Amino acid sequence: MKHAFSFSGFFRLLLIVGFTLQLSTTAEATSRERIEAFLETTGFDVALDGIAFASTSAPQMLGMVPDDFGTDWARAAKQVFDVQIMHRLAVEILEQTLTETALEHAITFYSSELGQRLVEVENASHKIEDDTYKQEQGRAIVADLVKNGAPRVEILNRMNRAIDSSDSALRALQEIQIRFLLAAHSAGVIELDLDGDDLRQAIKQNESATRTALRMSALAGAAYTYQVFPDEDIQTYAEELEYPLMQEVYELLNAVQYEIMANRFEALAQKMKNLETGQDI
């Protein structure tokens, strides 16, 4: 039986991850060993592992539940969002796109005393599978900050603006939604009367509300993740994220993250087809 997709399910995906998409390329390649060191030092390897958590929203995006795919659903999602596969994809892209200058700048900052403390809490946050818990805790922190008129709210907002200064996260996640839906339709998992352009238009109708929700979610997430840091450290971090070379690094890392998400969701659509027809995977 085919199903119709769910915009509410996609909205959940939007709140799981929020970065930017703006892929830049360069003829200068960086060695695999340097990329591996870069991933570990910056904590981006752990962030990649967290992409797997987004797979839990896949059935809801299609108007379904995991049980619709039988007992093999968890195994299928784990196979598709395999950590080693995602890591290999990231390294392959970064080898060809990340300049040595940008890499060195990021490593220098994140290997500093402050940088390592930031990576520690960011890694811990990425490893929490229950995003609802983080959001609830973060919103409570933000509510107290607002109540007390604390300047920390604007500092956190400044940091988030540096990470996504042009709403690229929203557009990237919309494109992931479209690619997943079209792949699921092609695989025969769902019925879809809209083509790619019509899907974009339908999703765009809720863009304003979704953008606001994304920003509130990002604020709550940052409030939770960096709660042990004083305002001065967060201010320093925001200033560092605004630095041109760090902007280049984050634009690329976020692009890599989103390309991997889109790639894996398309692969998951094919797995869903096999599960729905009762075939072994």
UniProtKB/TrEMBL annotation:
Residues 86-143 form the DUF2059 domain. The keyword Signal applies. It holds the Pfam family DUF2059. Residues 1-29 form the signal peptide. Keywords: Signal. This is DUF2059 domain-containing protein. It comes from Falsiruegeria litorea.
